[in-house]
Structures are given as C-alpha cells and as structure tokens.
C-alpha cells in the first residue's frame, strides 16, 4: 500500500511517501516547499517529483493520502476526510488559524485533482479522546463548553509514537501493542501499567502524560497557543492579561492576538530570536534576557513533568523528542537536575556523548528510563491511514 502523508502549514507543504505492508514500513521519498501561495501548484509539483523518481505514474498509484489535521469542531479521530471534516476544520479556523485553513484547502485541492483517491484525516486531538472529563474541562459557563471551549491537546501523533517506541525500548511489548492498536481497540488495562511522560520540544512544544498507550492529558489546551512557551507564541497566560493590556497599552484585540502569536514565547522573552540555538548562544555571551528565556522554558517543562508524575502515580519512561528535545543535551540535563528522589536520574556521560537517533540516558539505578526518540509523526499518520483503509475494504468486501 502506497500512502502519501501531507503536512500543511499556512505557507508550507511537506510530504512523505510510504510503502506499507503487513511486515514492512518503507519511506520511499520525502520533500517539501516553503512560501507556498498555491496548494494546487504544490500538489502538482509533488506529483512531478515522485514521477521523476519513479515512485508514481499518477495519483491513481496511491492507495490514500493521510493528513495530520490539527483539530475540528465537534469532530476527532482517524476518519475519511469528507465534508464533515472540512466543516469541522472551518468551524475551528479561529482556534488554529495557521493550520486549519491550510488543511481544508489542501484536502479540497487533492479532492479536485484525484476525486477517487481516499483522503484520511488523523486529528492531533485523537490521542486524547479517552482523557477524563475532569482533566479536559475548563471552569467556564456550560454554554462556553457547548461551544467547544475545553482542553484538547495536540502533537498527538508525536506523543503516540514516543509512547509506543519507548515501550519497545523498555522491553514492554504489551504496552507497545496497546499503544499501536489504540485507535482500533481503545485503551486497555495492563497487569503492570506503563507510564510515559512525553516531551515534544521544538518550534512548537507540548508535554503529554500517557498510561498504557492512552493519553491522560497534555500541556496544550484549547489551542496550539497554550501550554509551554512556543517559539513565538505565548503559551499559558492569565486571561485577565488581555483586557488589562488592552486598556493599559491601548491595543485592539486583533493587535493583542497578533503579539501573543507572533511576538511572544521564546522570542518575546529573549528579545533575540525564536530559535533556541540563537538564544542559547546569546545567553552564553551574557545576555540576561536570553538566559531568562531558557530558565522559563526549563521551568515550564519541569512543571508539566511534575503534573503528570502525580497524575500517573510515577513515571516508567521520560521521553525527549522533537528538534529541541533530541538535540540539546544541556536542556535534558537541566530538566532532570536534582530529580533523583523522584526516580529520575540522568547519566551525564551518555547525555553529553552527542546525538544518537535513540539513546537511553538513564543511570543504572534510575527507576525511570530516560530516552531520546526522534519524532516520527508522519509514520503514525501513514499507519493509521493504512488501518482505516484496510478496515473499510474489509467492511465493503
């Protein structure tokens, strides 16, 4: 089965082509384009590249296209990208303005170019659909909740992959299987629970708590603007800050929203850059604001690890994934510092030894395994797309 995974941003189009069988998962090709103004043109260019490489003759050679959609109003899961999905994406376009319009546009463009090609949407929120209501509700009027104001959680594909792979690395095949089949079977009880705290740290960051392959909650809430400080998005903020700053600085709601999503986060704290590498360099050169940005980021990561340590009743695997989590040894050391009493002890030599695709960083006496695991969201989308298509084929046969 050949599956194309499309990752769409407001001005970007990235793709990966997988060959999926019962025994093998092969990445055939990957690529992408920035500063995209016409998604139809980008799709044509993608097909042309894959034709020139000999992977496809036409879109009819594909079995499906999978989309890592973010969130939909009153809709989640892994489902065919039909009119209901488009309506759900449009219904929450204000909550995810950089993602939802792009995915809706991309789905419509693929449908126009290949009407018979199955299109599948795997919502990032799907991984959290079994979290308890107590962990997802905000203390707002019922009408707000009915309008869709609640905690959803994001980076679901990344956290799902981290949970599954960490279980495999820890020798917990039962937990790995439970995670792998979560969308087919739902959560399962294991005789011995496997508790994961997954730290997806990159330009966009979030932390999730996972028990037996199912998420119990995440640092992000209603929108991708919440939780940890993002590269240029504010993260968590007291709601009273908005009316206060509107009156104090005489700013419109639109301008406040722009500043919170474009000029805040690590960029707003550091005044240097939204790239952690630049911020770290400035901090080491004595820039106090840059050091503050690092301190706030580490503090918030530790805060959410603490939250999920309590909710899970412990931690069997602490995972660092994403560009920052995988590549910044100093950050992993800072996050794990002085946590030995909680069973988290990092081996400094292993941690400092340089990047390795998958590494166990824990000391021999650490109760918690500490892993770096490269993010692989696209593979999760390909897997779930394959399962959905196969289940539909079985149902229709």
What's the short version?
The protein has 397 residues and is an alpha/beta fold. The protein has helices spanning 39-52, 83-91, 100-113, 133-136, 142-146, 156-169, 173-180, 182-185, 241-248, 253-262, 265-270, 276-284, 288-312, 322-327, 329-336, 348-352, 377-396, and strands at residues 2-8, 13-20, 25-33, 64-67, 78-80, 119-122, 195-200, 206-211, 214-218, 317-321, 359-360, 369-372.
Task: Report on this structure.
With 397 residues, this protein is of the alpha/beta class. It folds into 2 domains: 2-122, 2-Layer Sandwich (Nucleotidyltransferase, domain 5); 156-377, ATPase, nucleotide binding domain (Nucleotidyltransferase, domain 5), CATH 3.30.420. The protein has 17 helices and 12 strands. The protein has helices at 39-52, 83-91, 100-113, 133-136, 142-146, 156-169, 173-180, 182-185, 241-248, 253-262, 265-270, 276-284, 288-312, 322-327, 329-336, 348-352, 377-396, and strands at 2-8, 13-20, 25-33, 64-67, 78-80, 119-122, 195-200, 206-211, 214-218, 317-321, 359-360, 369-372. The strands form 2 sheets. It has a 6-stranded mixed beta sheet with strand order 3-2-1-4-6-5, sandwiched between helices. Strands 9-8-7-10-12-11 form a 6-stranded mixed beta sheet, sandwiched between helices. Helix 6 (156-169) runs antiparallel to helix 7 (173-180). The longest helix has 25 residues, at 288-312. It starts with a strand and ends with a helix.
